[in-house]
Amino acid sequence: KRRILIDCDPGIDDTIAIILAACSPIIELVGITTVSGNVGVDKTTLNALKICEFAGIADTPVARGAERPLVREPITGDVHGESGIGGVELPFPTKTVIGEHAVDFIIRTLLESEGDITLVPIGPLTNIALAIRKEPSIISKIQEIVIMGGGTFGNITPAAEFNFYADAEAAAVVFASALPITMIGLDLTHQAIATETVKDQIASIDNDVSQFVLELLGFYDSNYKKMGFEGAVVHDLCCVAYCIDSSLFATRHVYVDIETKDELLYGASIVDLQGVTGKQPNANVAIHLNQEKFWSLLINTLRQYS
Ligand code: BDR
Ligand code: CA
C-alpha cells in the first residue's frame, strides 16, 4: 500500500480526493490535516471530520492546522459555497480532531515513519512550510510530495493558481526545500473535467459514496459552467489518482520558482520548461493526463465501495 498524508482545505474537490483515497485498496491514509484556504480552518476542519464520518474513515487522525498564511492576509475561494462543501448537508460529526496541531502531527508522523510517507497537500502550503521550518530533518523522511498547485497560467489572477496565491511564501519555502516534488498544476488539472458523460457513469453506480460525489459535482459544476467550462475541474482528485497510478500522468522534470514580490505575479509558479535558467530541476511537473484511465480509476474505485 502507498501511505499518504493529505493536507487539505475541503473544499469540494478536496472532498472527492479524500473519498478516492479512503476507497482505494492501494492507499493507506495515515492522516488528514487541515488548513485555511477555500474557507477558514474552522470550516475546513469541520468538513474533514464530517467527510470522515460519512465515508467511514474511522482510524485516520484529523489534525487542525494553520489559520493564517505565513505572511499575507487570508483569502478564501468562491467556487465551493459558504460551507466549503456546497451542495451537500452532512450531519454534525461525532469524530473530533486530535489534540496535536497539524504541523506537529506532520512532523511526528514523518519522524516516526520509515521514510515511506507521501505528503499530498491539496490546499495552501502553510502547514507544510511551517513543518519544514520547525523540523528540517523531516525533509529526508518524505518519500514524495504530490502538490496540487501552480501551473503556467492562473485561476485567481492571470498568473497565479489559488493554492499558491493563498500562501505564496509557503509555496516558495517548499519549492526551495530540495524535496522530491511532483507538481500537479492547472496545466494538468484542466484536463480532469467531470463532463455529463462522466457524471452519467458515476450515477449508474448507485451506492452512498457515488451519490454523494455526484451531489458534490452538481454544485461545483454549476460554478465552473458559469466560467465557461464543460463541467467541474476536479483539481485535487488528480493528486490522489497520481498516488494510486502515476502512469496516467506524463511529467517533466524541470526547475520551478515561486514569485512572492511582484504584485502582478504574486503566487505565480515560474516553470522553466525550456531549461533557460540552467538551474537544477526541482520538480516533476505534470503535463498530460490519460483522461480515460483517470475516470475509470475513479469509477471502478467508487464501484468497489460497500
Ligand atoms: C485549488 O483551489 C481550490 O479551489 C481547489 O480545492 C484546489 O485545491 C485549485 O486552484
Ligand atoms: Ca483544495
TrEMBL record:
* Gene3D superfamilies named among the record's database cross-references: Ribonucleoside hydrolase-like
What transmembrane ranges does the database entry give? none
Which InterPro entries does this one have?
I/U_nuclsd_hydro_CS, Inosine/uridine_hydrolase_dom, IUNH, Ribo_hydro-like
Q: Which residues form the Inosine/uridine-preferring nucleoside hydrolase domain?
A: 4-295
- Which residues, by range, are in coiled-coil regions? none
Q: What keywords would UniProt list here?
A: Glycosidase, Hydrolase
Picking any one GO molecular function of the record gives: hydrolase activity
Q: Which PANTHER family match?
A: INOSINE-URIDINE PREFERRING NUCLEOSIDE HYDROLASE, URIDINE NUCLEOSIDASE
Query: Under which name does UniProt file this protein?
Result: Nucleoside hydrolase
Which species is this UniProt entry from? Paenibacillus aestuarii
